[in-house]
């Protein structure tokens, strides 16, 4: 038996105006993905344990990691028996790139175990196929950050293009998770509330602010990143799905948060902060939700690396 064990991090997508394009890998939490391969076996199986495992489908066709595994097996004509063990550390359905962490971890594991030497873009394309199983669309923002780490920017034409930039090391993220019920297939629901077109005026706002975020990462300027994280299209539509959002944002900004927006499809929200103010921003955001009668929890994390190999047992044949 050969195997690899991969650490696959959570991520926060969109960062305000970068809907379906921007994401940032988080240092914590993360999934642990083990891929075992038996040359003489013949089945593909998926096991899920850890945070929220009971709500995650285990059938290969419905599990996002299973979908990615099947895509690798077919694309590269891989033979044998495959067992995928998914130990969830990233809670599902909270807007923290949980399915993407699993998809990215499985893609990374296949690439390592079979020495496929795929490019970043090829890995992202394959990992994004798993997002269809959980979110209904092959959006590649979260999987890019989870695979490659840091800040990632996805451009989709016929083929996908992915850029990654190391975030400023002093950047901190407060992640606040309101305790509200989320519908099944939450991301699909959160995409259905979005407008199908925007005015030219709104487009100019979104493009200019998204550019500021990207330039901020490229220049290592937290203030540019924060000033750019103002989204007048997606946040406006989705904040209605998050009771307490407006109060939480108001309290966070009053306490010195540099920026505040929805994490991916929500319901979690993120606030940017510097080191000396992070706890205050976190507490104030939670208080804002409480004022609206919504319980919330949260944590502070740095931006993180992409998928990494934790362990491996590989023998390559001559
Ligand atoms: N960009 C996606 C969305 C991320 O906002 O719907 C979902 O995790």
Automatic annotation (TrEMBL):
**Compartments, record wording:** Cytoplasm
Under the heading InterPro entries, the entry gives: GHMP_kinase_C_dom (IPR013750), GHMP_kinase_C_sf (IPR036554), GHMP_kinase_N_dom (IPR006204), GHMP_knse_ATP-bd_CS (IPR006203), Homoserine_kinase (IPR000870), Ribosomal_Su5_D2-typ_SF (IPR020568), Ribsml_uS5_D2-typ_fold_subgr (IPR014721)
Main localization category: cytoplasm
* One example GO MF annotation: homoserine kinase activity
Q: Please give the SUPFAM superfamilies that the UniProt record associates with this protein.
A: GHMP Kinase, C-terminal domain, Ribosomal protein S5 domain 2-like
Q: Which GO terms describe its cellular component?
A: cytoplasm
Q: Per UniProt, where does ATP bind?
A: 91-101
User: Which family does the UniProt entry place this protein in?
Assistant: Belongs to the GHMP kinase family. Homoserine kinase subfamily.
Q: What is the stated purpose of this protein?
A: Catalyzes the ATP-dependent phosphorylation of L-homoserine to L-homoserine phosphate.
Q: What is this protein called?
A: Homoserine kinase
Could you tell me which species this protein originates from? Answer: Candidatus Marsarchaeota G1 archaeon BE_D
Give the taxonomic lineage as stored in the record.
Archaea, Candidatus Marsarchaeota, Candidatus Marsarchaeota group 1
Q: Which gene encodes it?
A: thrB
